[in-house]
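Database export, one record per block. Field names are fixed; values are copied verbatim from the stored entry.
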Amino acid sequence: MFRQTARGTRTTGTAVVPAAVVVDPPLEGPEVSMRGRVRALLVVGGLAAAPGVLAPATARAATSSTRRRTVASGETWEIGRITRLDELVVEDGATLTVAEGCSLSLTVNGVETGSRLDGTYGFATVIAAGVYRGDVVLTPAVDHLESFAGAAFHLRQAVYVGADGVVSENSVLSAVRGGRLTDDSARNVTVRSTGEAFNGFFVAGGASYRLASPKVRFDGNGRLDFACDGAALTGSGAGTRLVVEDADVDNRGSVRTGVIAHDGADVIVKNSRIRTREGVLPDDYEPGFGANMMTVPWMLGLSGNVRATNVLGANTTATYINSTVSSEEWGAMSTDSVRNSRLNAVNSTVAVTGASGYGTYADGTSQRNVFLGTHFDVATFVAISTGSPVTFGDSTRRAVAALDEDCDLRLTARELAAIEPRGCRLTSRGFGVMWHSGDGGSVDIGGDTRFTTEKTMFLDKGKQVAITVDGSRGARLSTGNGVLVQIMETDDPGSMTGSYSDPTDAPERDSSFDTTTEHTADATAAFTDISLTGDFYNAMRTGKNLVVTFERSRIQGVLSSSRTRHALATITADDWQEINHVTNTVQPAVNNGVIVHLGAKSVWTVSGTSHLTKLVVAADAQVKAPRGRSLAFSVDGVDTVLAPGATYAGALELTVTPAQP
């Protein structure tokens, strides 16, 4: 028998819940059988059911008798059926049990409450000690198990939807208020929770389901978003299609995710608001990975304990259209532990409202991450990639129609026409795009995208990446610290308890690595039809070149091999904010070549000493010093006249000095 024991150390006193007209299962005395599946229409708020329609939730009838139950300390009460009371007292040390293979949930006036995880790293919940007054409903629902990292999590949800519709055995229908609920859709329903690890809608089993104007308000911690435990809205499983329109989701709590697309599902969110805010983890929580990952790894230079949305598993797709997605910290839109999955946003707003967090995380094996006409306003990174492609572009009619067809969004002609073409606006109070793990990542920026950062625009921690920026339609880049591209060794200590220290020795030359030749493992950056101001640094100690190409572009800045240093010689978890932040000292390349292709009609205004290993200058390109300065150029220590139409290789040095009077 699965035991649920009240824990008086976690919650005491009277549960505070709002009074409201609520919808609960019909009564046959104090207990109601939990068997039966919702086969047709659930009409809430006191509306009459159509003839022949099963309505397992109706407005509570008035009663002259008061039903109270006290579970005394040391007493065990087994709840075998849905049970309604006016008052429930659970004393410290009391035990509430349900049959093996079931989980127990409590609602008061239609709000799930009283549930607490059965430990900091628990996989199930218990009902906390306390006094619960109002329309009290206890629901023993059949366990819904989700596994991750070798652990099985006991999920509870207001509504579980399977292939044949709403499955009442797995649902806590007393937590559904207002509106209408059917086997293929729900409209204007509200789900509220002040307990822990409770889900709103979980749609699975290949179901096709539509949620119109749902309202979700969760206040309390979830358990693990990798297992979908504690999320507001989830679509899960191959063939499952969940369409969400005009949703209003507002969650507060650690890992209390707003929307999750999981294990092959297609989730389309339109005209919705998804908001998550931080929770407070137990004092004995220790940051970890796998089944215990309830915070972002500090080694990313981030903090936080909730992501607003997540894409998980293989062949999963999530698309957000005309929606606002925000998280206080950690991240707003994530893909994680995926394979061949996709994340898209069209004309949406993505925000991190707190002091730390990313806009989107592109896991290394996701297929594509496409953002059209989407505005980002974030704290630390617009995007993080571990090897997946990220695209920022305009929401043109053609681009949106192509995405609609490619991802089988099934947008109507009216919906397509209502999407006004616009460019991306990417604003970060920190960095732009960061790569820290996995090779093959790319970012493609085009259209009328305007990208503004306070810190480095593109931060590559030793990975093979490709940066492509096309300014022919108005794309612009602006960085507050003056660094456009930074290649550096990783400063990830490798574990939650580890530390990072800058190397103090000089790198040794690798005679097998050619700094004048382009390699498939190099980092590349290509810019077309754009004017740039900022520096490019390659500070790798091991063999990796930075290859930069300009076509019909103007660049003013330093392009050079360099050495980096952090402000602190050693960085631990207490110093997480020092991760990513480095200063550069230019120096000749060792194993960190910088190869520059100055293509047609391009101009490089050298603003400071630059060390290259190869420079290719087109016949109509130009390398020059700023006005009032002079440019000197040497190859392997020999002063050389830098001429258009020439190629130079070796130890190249460009220096800028005051012009001679």
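Remark 1: The chain is about 0% helix and 45% strand.
Remark 2: Residues 1-64 have pLDDT under 50 and may be disordered.
End of record.
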